[in-house]
Amino acid sequence: MLRVARSAFSTGTVRRMPQFVVVAYDGKDEGALDRRMAVRGDHLEGAMKLKKAGHLISGGALLDSNGKMMGSMMTVEFASEQELRKVSWKAVMIF
């Protein structure tokens, strides 16, 4: 599942573009962690492309109460939500 929300976070500096928080949850089946790890290199490469393009502000794994990875989140900047939705998030975050 992929969710997008506008960020209310402000650093007190002038922002060039709107910020968005993108959250993607992993599957809940037994093979979900194996699928995540199998594509982790592609996932990190996609994140680096967003960083080099000036879109990625921060990101990381979402952990459950036992410290097991259960998803990912990214804070990104794009000119508009329409531009944000043009990104192939499947290549970046969906396992």
From TrEMBL:
What's the protein called, per UniProt?
YCII-related domain-containing protein
Domain YCII-related span(s) in chain numbering: 21-87
Cross-referenced Pfam families: YCII
Could you tell me which species this protein originates from?
A: Sphaeroforma arctica JP610
Superkingdom, according to UniProt? Eukaryota
